[in-house]
Specification:
It contains 9 helices and 4 strands, in the order E-H-E-H-E-E-H-H-H-H-H-H-H. It is of the alpha+beta class. Helix 1 packs parallel to helix 3. Bound molecules: glutathione.
């Protein structure tokens, strides 16, 4: 059986994307909590040896490190034939949503969330304004992608849903009011059997 081990932190939406995918796919795996708020050099040595940027998420697959959340999600879908990886069409849709997420909604939301953190340095008002304008477009495009489906992948969630979930789970924290389609999708995501809180995905 393939050995899987995930390194992550509950404050990392990128790590949550992968933890959710493993959970939804029912893939057994070990987890190591990596303190991303501590200086990189204090992180576990095995993690530093395997993670080129000392960033989470990192997934070891039979000891082989895979980094970058999108690449990890694609690896999971393809290798195990899950979450869209069951068909060429599902995989293509997953790739499309992953590229869109990384460039658009997954760029805006983490910045808006970070800007509101207690003790954070915030962002200049015109940058916040720019992110909010971009996010309006992202929310409209999210609605197009979702269509009538409960999930972005249709009747069942796929890697694209996991990717968007990473930071869409924290709309309140980002100071964003969900549009109706986002709210409907968030409710469907929260109702999934494999859904967990970030702290449950990565216990300290
Ligand atoms: N593009 C990367 C982003 C990874 C990333 O930014 N990880 C952050 C947490 S969300 C991290 O590990 N930060 C710790 C550091 O930079 O020292 C991905 O998709 O995996």
């Amino acid at each position: 059986m393939t050995q899987l081990h995930l390194y992550g932190h509950p404050d990392s939406g990128h790590a949550c994307k992968v933890a959710l995918a493993l959970s939804l796919a029912g893939l057994d795996h070990g987890v190591t909590f990596v303190d991303i708020h501590a200086p990189p050099e204090t992180r576990p040595t095995d993690f530093l040896d395997a993670s080129p940027f000392a960033e989470v998420p990192l997934l070891l697959i039979d000891g082989t490190p895979v980094f970058q959340s999108g690449a990890i999600l694609l690896e999971i879908a393809q290798r195990f034939g899950v979450l869209g990886g069951e068909s060429p069409e599902g995989l293509r849709l997953g790739r499309e949503i992953l590229m869109w997420e990384a460039n658009r909604i997954g760029m805006c939301l983490p910045q808006l969330k970070a800007a509101r953190l207690d003790g954070g340095e915030g962002l200049p008002a015109d940058v916040i304004c720019w992110l909010r304008v971009r996010l309006e477009t992202d929310c409209a495009n999210f609605a197009r992608l979702l269509g009538e489906g409960p999930f972005l992948h249709g009747a069942a969630p796929g890697i694209g849903d996991c990717a968007v979930w990473g930071y869409a789970q924290w709309l309140d924290e980002a100071g964003v009011t969900p549009t109706a389609p986002l709210e409907r999708w968030i409710d469907a995501m929260r109702g999934l059997d494999g859904m967990k809180t970030p702290a449950a995905f990565f216990p300290a």
